[in-house]
Structures are given as C-alpha cells and as structure tokens.
C-alpha cells in the first residue's frame, strides 16, 4: 500500500478512531510499523466497531495551560524527568518529530508528542485515557509513540556507549572505591519484561519458566547505573556480548565484567564461587566484594523499571518488531536522566 493511499484511509477513519471506545489492543490491530522513516506511512488492516459511535470527551489545553503550571517536582512526578531534562531531550528529538510527511493535515507539535509518550511510558495509563488528557486522537497517539521511540533509537549510540580510554579508567575506579573489587568495567545481568502473547507461531519461545510471555533484556552498567550496553527484546537465554570478541580493545589492563552464577566462566566475566558450605575466608571475601559490585546492575534495572513503569507492568505491543526499539528508547532516557544528574529514588526494593 503506498503512503498516499494509506493517508487517505487513515484520514477517513480518523473520526471513527477518535470516537471509538476501543483500547490500545485495537490500535495495535489497526496499525503496524512502516519501513519508512516516518511512521505516517501505515497500513490499515481492520477496523472493529463495538457499539454505536460516541463523541469522546477531551481535556482542553492540558499541554498549553496545565503543564506549564507544574512545579519542577510536579512535572517530574508525571513525566519522570525535570523540566530542564525534558527540554534537553526535546532539543535532540524535536527535529526528528517535526519532519513533515505526505499528509496535508497539521503536524502534532513535537512537544505534545514527547509529553504524551513520556506520560505513557511513565504510567500504566491506557492509550484511550491519554488521548483524552492530551486532546489527540488514537491514531495520533500511536504514531507519536512510534515516532518518539524511533527518534530515541537513533540517539542510542550517542547515549549508550561502552567506556573506552580515560572513561574506562574512571568506571573501574568507581567500582574499586565502592566494592574493593579491582578491574571491573561493568556489571552484567538480564531481566524479563512481560509482553502480550505473540500472535505468531513462535509464542512458545517467549514463554519463560514462570509461565508468562516475556522478552529478555541483557544490560551492562557502571557503578553509577549508566547503561553501557543493552541487548533488548529477544526470547531465550542471555548471550555473551560482542565486546568479548575483542578483549584487547574493550577490556584494557585485564579488566572484566562481574555477573552472577548464571554466566559461564569466561576470561572477561568474573562470577562468584558456588557456596557448597566449604568456602575459604578468601573465597567468601571474593564473593562479598563481587556481590557489592554486581548489585549495581540490579539497582539499574530497579531505577529503569520504576521510572518508566510501563516496563514494570506489561508492554501493550503485539507486534514483536516494535519491542526492542521501545526498550532501547527507554534505556536512552534512563541514561540521559542519570548523566544530567536527574536522579530517581526508588520507593521499593522489589526489582522484579
């Protein structure tokens, strides 16, 4: 389907989408991602009507009047970052969100798109409820999510970077001062993110040992919780990072990662001794120091999930190709916030 035809269909369906009571599951059935740079080139698969059309109420001028009246604390409680951090992110993604597509309809302002998406990422609010609050249609809501995630994805190499040179020495020093474990360039671990049951024949591959469908995210972080590597959105077990194929470059001065006992013995990963009840005092001290360094990745996942609570619950996507892009996007936001000292204090210790 060409883009002009897609836009014609989308325009014709706009009132139906705006008036329908269907939730984000219906939106996922209607729209799928496009291979083009702009997500406006969508394909329409089906429209399901549930009862008579009703005009849905909207909140007028929430972005124009209510949000500017928030204090810094109120703004952060809703959007999970300070206003100054928001302006920084908007400065990077705004030009990518403002690119005009082939439609003649007015483009939703980049600021509105970003606020809307941050709201959805930070809360368990439904797309339908968010549309009411931000005074946009469901189609606009879905397109905004795709645009913002794609824009943040393009920034990943800038904000999720492996420490090299002087930065590598700084990271190693942070771990030594905090844990007394020498040579640590990062802590590695994986975590499961719950998803909807995939609609293809591979749904069994995504069913984890606890019985629910999920994708795995494997990350490496510094002691200050900054992600330096993120491998996201795939089924199955953790993988050995590609960095280990070139240890001379990525692991200077015999540096290494620290991981838990789920990882195999490897020259670039230090894992704990298995406690069989007969560990020596030196081995116990080794395990203690390693654990002190390794908990940084658990804390990083805890901050990441609690700041962006959508990933603490269940991702709404049913298109599997969208999930890695979404997870990498929130990882970019996580790093930007920490690098700008826009910190998030956990109110709970259950990191899931």
UniProtKB/TrEMBL annotation:
One of its GO terms (cellular component) is nucleus. One of its GO terms (molecular function) is metal ion binding. PANTHER family: GH03217P-RELATED, PTHR22930. It comes from Acanthoscelides obtectus (Bean weevil). It is found in: Nucleus. The lineage of its organism: Eukaryota, Metazoa, Ecdysozoa, Arthropoda, Hexapoda. Its cofactor is a divalent metal cation. InterPro entries: HARBI1-like, HARBI1_dom. Keywords: Hydrolase, Metal-binding, Nuclease, Nucleus. Belongs to the HARBI1 family. This is DDE Tnp4 domain-containing protein. It holds the Pfam family DDE_Tnp_4. Residues 188-335 form the DDE Tnp4 domain.
């Amino acid at each position: 389907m060409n883009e002009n035809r897609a836009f014609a269909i989308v325009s014709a369906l706009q009132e139906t989408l705006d008036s329908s009571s269907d939730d984000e599951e219906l939106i996922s059935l209607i729209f799928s991602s496009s291979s083009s740079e702009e997500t406006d080139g969508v394909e329409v698969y089906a429209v399901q009507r549930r009862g008579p059309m009703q005009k849905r109420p909207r909140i007028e001028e929430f972005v124009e009047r209510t949000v500017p009246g928030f204090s810094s604390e109120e703004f952060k409680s809703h959007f999970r970052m300070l206003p100054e951090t928001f302006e920084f992110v908007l400065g990077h993604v705004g030009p990518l969100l403002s690119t005009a597509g082939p439609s003649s309809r007015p483009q939703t302002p980049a600021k509105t798109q970003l606020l809307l998406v941050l709201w959805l990422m930070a809360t368990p609010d439904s797309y339908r409820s968010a549309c009411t609050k931000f005074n946009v249609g469901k189609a606009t809501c879905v397109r905004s999510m795709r645009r913002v995630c794609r824009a943040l994805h393009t920034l990943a190499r800038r904000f999720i970077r492996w420490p090299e040179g002087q930065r590598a020495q700084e990271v190693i020093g942070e771990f030594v001062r905090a844990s007394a474990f020498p040579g640590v360039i990062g802590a590695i671990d994986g975590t499961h993110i719950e998803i909807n049951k995939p609609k293809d024949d591979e749904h069994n591959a995504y069913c984890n040992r606890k019985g629910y469908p999920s994708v795995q995210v494997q990350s490496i972080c510094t002691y200050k919780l900054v992600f330096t590597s993120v491998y996201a959105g795939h089924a199955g077990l953790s993988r050995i990072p590609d960095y280990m194929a070139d240890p001379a470059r990525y692991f200077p001065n015999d540096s290494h990662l620290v991981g838990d006992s789920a990882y195999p013995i490897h020259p670039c990963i230090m894992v704990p001794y298995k406690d069989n009840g007969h560990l020596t005092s030196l081995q116990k001290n080794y395990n203690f120091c390693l654990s002190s360094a390794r908990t940084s990745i658990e804390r990083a996942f805890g901050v990441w999930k609690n700041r962006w609570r959508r990933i603490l619950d269940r991702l709404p996507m049913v298109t599997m190709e969208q999930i890695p892009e979404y997870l990498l996007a929130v990882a970019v936001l996580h790093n930007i916030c920490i690098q700008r000292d826009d910190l998030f204090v956990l109110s709970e210790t259950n990191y899931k």
